[in-house]
Amino acid sequence: MKMQMNVIKKYHGTVRAVAVVAVLLSAIGIMAFTLHKDDKSGKADPELFVVKKDSVASVKAFKQVYTVLMSARCMNCHPSGDIPLQGDDSHLHTMFPKRGVDGKGVYAMKCANCHQATNTPGLHTPPGNPKWHLPPADMKMVFQGRTPHQLAKQLMDPDQNGHKNMQQLIEHVDDTLVKAAWNPGEGRTLPPMSHAAFKKAWLTWLSTGAYAPKGK
Amino acid sequence: MISLNVNQKAYQVDADPNMPLLWVIRDIIGLTGTKYGCGVAQCGACVVHLNGEAVRSCVTKVSRAEGQQVTTIEGLSANNDHPAQVAWNEENVPQCGYCHSGQIMSAAVLLRDNPNPTDEDIDNAMAGNICRCGTYLRIRKAIHTAAELQRKEVKS
Question: Keyword set for this entry (chain B) (predicted)?
Answer without folding.
Answer: 2Fe-2S, Iron, Iron-sulfur, Metal-binding, Oxidoreductase
